[in-house]
From TrEMBL:
It comes from Malus baccata. Residues 66-366 form the BRO1 domain. Gene3D superfamilies: alix/aip1 like domains. It comes from the Eukaryota. This is BRO1 domain-containing protein.
């Protein structure tokens, strides 16, 4: 079972018309700026759900893609190379006063999917404005990673391999954001900024996607009948990934405006995989004739999870189901120990062995694409 957290993909943006801001020197540049605006408008309409075209036309325009997530990915993959090309050309003359003025007139505005202030804004979605093309690139890439993650969940029931690959690709996008995009945006950031432009938040999202990828890998391993010892290590590897993500979130000063749902999701996911890891670990202890220790491991795990449940009701519902199964497993072990093994059950949690973690999921590096087209401006 996996918990669903689709908040990162709930980004909205306002219209940008590039050719109305940047003065083109020739007709070729003007046409390319219009194409950029056109691709941007397709993206705006797909994420803002403001398109006037029907589903059949949307499918035809995206080459027959039926899934909304696929259509958004298609629009993103058309827009990003053009945006990268514009940024490259603007950077060449970015110190020119005319280029600085034009860029400021773009009024690049995005909502935040992860900001706590956005959730409590009574007038509707709160838009953050930062007049820098890398802010546009940052939010577009964040959306790309988030939609890749949604698509991975969408294909999960039917194709475990593709799902794991998409999660790893999403992890690569967020890793690229954290290390190659956001650091170059810092000098332009105002005090009030969305979590999406904070490097540590993208690092957190990358770790979440790796944890998702490993969870899918475990599903495949379970189907193949992998040993309980390895399954325990793989689940505990996810616990370690989520611990690392929670640590980043807790120590990042720039993430103070982040919705509590992010931390609650990390905690809920960690508990879910803790239950699985300790269930399999108890089996390995039984196999090595440590039945009393196995009972203690199950007992303490159940107690710790029950007292730390947080987050959305849908997450709690999944956890409660796992807790019920875990409780029944513990009851059977206690009964068997009482009537068959008669082993002493340790009463100190600190004396209990812990499973090792094995992290096998790795990112698929994101390779930016840039359509190398010459742009000439009147400066």
């Amino acid at each position: 079972m996996m918990l669903h957290f689709n908040d990162p993909a709930k980004l909205k943006t306002k219209k940008i018309v590039f050719e109305e801001v940047y003065a083109a020197r020739d007709s070729a540049t003007l046409e390319q700026l219009k194409e950029l605006s056109s691709k941007r408008r397709m993206l705006e309409e797909s994420i803002n759900e403001s398109s006037s075209i029907n589903g059949a036309i949307a499918r035809e325009m995206s080459g027959g893609l039926t899934s909304r997530n696929q259509q958004v990915l298609h629009n993103l993959e058309l827009y990003l190379p053009l945006l990268e090309n514009l940024i490259w050309h603007v950077d060449r003359v970015k110190s020119h006063h005319q280029m600085v003025r034009w860029t400021s007139e773009l009024k690049i505005q995005w909502t935040s999917a992860l900001s706590s202030s956005s959730f409590f804004n009574l007038k509707g979605s709160k838009y953050f404005q930062i007049n820098n093309l890398r802010f546009e690139l940052c939010l577009t890439l964040f959306l790309y990673g988030a939609i890749l993650r949604e698509r991975a969940l969408e294909v999960l029931p039917s194709d475990l391999v593709q799902s794991a690959t998409l999660f790893r690709e999403a992890a690569g996008v967020f890793h690229h954001l954290a290390h190659q995009v956001i650091p170059f945006l810092q000098h332009s950031l105002v005090w009030e900024r969305p979590p999406e432009v904070v490097s540590s938040m993208s690092a957190v999202m990358s770790l979440i996607c790796l944890a998702d990828a490993q969870a899918v890998t475990i599903k495949k391993a379970e189907e193949k009948g992998t040993t309980v010892g390895l399954l325990a290590k793989l689940h505990h590897g996810i616990v370690e990934l989520l611990d690392e993500a929670a640590g980043l979130l807790h120590t990042a000063k720039e993430c103070k405006d982040t919705s509590s749902d992010v931390a609650d999701f990390l905690s809920s996911c960690k508990m879910l995989h803790e239950l699985q890891a300790q269930k399999y670990f108890a089996e390995t202890l039984k196999s090595s004739n440590q039945f009393g220790v196995a009972v203690a491991v199950l007992r303490f795990t159940l107690t710790n999870v029950k007292k730390n449940m947080l987050g959305k009701e849908s997450w709690k519902s999944v956890l409660k189901e796992e807790i019920d199964n875990f409780s029944e497993l513990l009851r059977k072990h206690e009964h068997e120990n009482e009537f068959v093994w008669h082993e002493k059950v340790p009463s100190e949690e600190t004396l209990l062995p812990k499973p090792e973690g094995n992290k096998i999921a790795n990112i698929i590096p994101y390779q930016p694409k840039k359509w190398e087209r010459q742009l000439a401006f009147k400066i």
